[in-house]
Design goal:
seven-stranded antiparallel β-sheet; Umud Fragment, subunit A; alpha+beta
């Protein structure tokens, strides 16, 4: 198996693993749960499919996803415990984590609302997690660089097959330090002639 074929395998595998979740769940917002705040309905590392819909479609008891604008926690998953309009007639959602003792202190409005969780895929969140995808990207980049290097013609290093004129043994000389190493004797252990490149005198 050539070096190029060996390098193609990790490239194909990495591309498939990176793109597969995006292709399968295209058209939906995809995320993974990284805490136990929604236990037992949603566990850490579960893959969530979020239907991006209007906030007016949310009902009490729905599990929703919304932006927090807090540093370190950009998106949260919570259950809607109350859906109502405030004094200005603006629809808002009060939320609570299933595993949390108290309800959240904020109210989610349309500007922060992303959508409703419509599907939970157990233990599949790693497929889109940074700790899984970043190493794939690194492996992909390294493999591509090595493949490009292997594809560049190595001028001056390509040598023809050598033949021992004494025993008929054929071989390719080694390349050491960027230079072709011509052996002083025939590599054939049954020959080892120092005159391998000289025909026998008749």
């Amino acid at each position: 198996m050539t070096c190029k074929k060996i390098l193609i395998a990790p490239i194909v595998i990495c591309v498939v693993l990176i793109l597969l979740p995006l292709l399968i769940f295209s058209g939906n917002y995809v995320m993974y749960q990284n805490s136990d705040s929604m236990y037992p309905a949603i566990l850490p590392d579960d893959l969530l499919i979020v239907e991006q819909s209007g906030i007016e479609q949310v009902k009490q008891g729905d599990v929703i996803v919304f932006e927090t604008h807090d540093e370190g926690i950009e998106v949260l998953v919570r259950r809607a415990i109350d859906v109502s309009e405030n004094n200005q007639g603006i629809l808002g959602i009060d939320t609570k984590g299933d595993h949390e003792e108290f309800h959240d202190l904020w109210t989610v409005y349309s500007d922060d609302y992303i959508g409703k969780v419509v599907e939970v895929n157990p233990s599949s969140g790693f497929l889109i997690s940074d700790y899984f995808r970043y190493p794939l990207v690194v492996i992909l980049a390294i493999s591509l660089v090595l493949l490009v290097r292997e594809s560049i013609p190595k001028k001056g290093l390509e040598v023809k097959e050598l033949t021992c004129l004494r025993c008929g043994n054929k071989w390719h000389p080694r390349i050491i330090g960027g230079k072709v190493k011509i052996p002083s004797t025939c590599p054939n252990k049954d020959c080892r002639s120092p005159y391998w490149n000289k025909p026998r005198s008749s």
